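Q: What does the assembled structure look like for these inputs?
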Amino acid sequence: MRTVEHAGDGENAPWAEVAPEAARRLLAAAVEAFAERGYHATTTRDIASRAGMSPAALYIHFKTKEELLHRISRIGHDRALALLTDAADSGGTATRRLDDVVRRFVRWHAERHTTARVVQYELDALAPEHRAEIVELRRRSDAVVRRILTEGVRDGEFDVPDVPGTTLAVLSLCIDVARWFNVAGRRSADEVGALYADLVLRMVTAQKQ
Amino acid sequence: MRTVEHAGDGENAPWAEVAPEAARRLLAAAVEAFAERGYHATTTRDIASRAGMSPAALYIHFKTKEELLHRISRIGHDRALALLTDAADSGGTATRRLDDVVRRFVRWHAERHTTARVVQYELDALAPEHRAEIVELRRRSDAVVRRILTEGVRDGEFDVPDVPGTTLAVLSLCIDVARWFNVAGRRSADEVGALYADLVLRMVTAQKQ
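A:
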């Protein structure tokens, strides 16, 4: 994959919470390597070399390649859940909160598309206990959206015959932005977010016919 | 990826158009290997072995690993375009045709999810001329959906402020089914198709407010 992820600002700054700097550099190198060649075709030697470090220096921070993938996946899912929860708890009507959730979740997947692809496509490479932990974080993200839909239906703002199915569709639409988003494309992350928020609100709004 | 693709019936039967049988077996083995380990971590020896053949026997049918990926991608995209075109040309209102397009495109990505993942996620592993050929097929699939939306707007059935953006969203929603669909899950391919057709029609239907 030939796209490059830039250090965004604020909530989307890659790996800002990781210390020391060497560990941060290794995570960034691992994401690049996994995105280009796939998890199974990447060695810890490749990752160390991309980060300008020796394999021995890598082992100080990460014992295995799987530990790198798990760390990447864990941070990515923690951030995604935090931004969804933040948008969902921001107050206001269900319409307002769903609009915010979609804009922020789309922006996240557009700006962090390389990380998001690795995280989504290499889920099966995680050790079983790590996979279970990530699946639980995804279940919680799912619950955030489901709650907004349920409250919107209760308050008469939304008409959603199938709340779990619509939740799945809304999240899927946002996640798939990571697959096709192109930083050199004609739409910015914010423009895609605005378009998708409008489309999602149409999906759930009571049809007056 | 631990999911298995079963030989469906009719239009979705995997590789039915490929002859001889040995070539068909090699394509099926390549899809499995690429899905499990990724393109770059798979060797032609792995593929031959999965198909119960010698590397020499593989080379009779495919000169390189890239030729296998290209063949898989080409057949997949040809089928997808054919089913979209077929649904789009079936006559009836834009609403009727869009409903049919979404149901069939979702079913395709659900039933052929392993192939679809390989095709979507390994696009960058294709040789430049093959990648250009596939991108052209995708452009034509895109045009099929865009035409239905444009005609629906013209005929007063649809209200779509951003036709290219909505086309992208509709296709993205259907394609991402390949990522999350689980044959052991609680929804069948047809049930997801029906749900998504309803959600997409809500996205594009004139809002009477």
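The first helix of chain B runs from residue 21 to 37.
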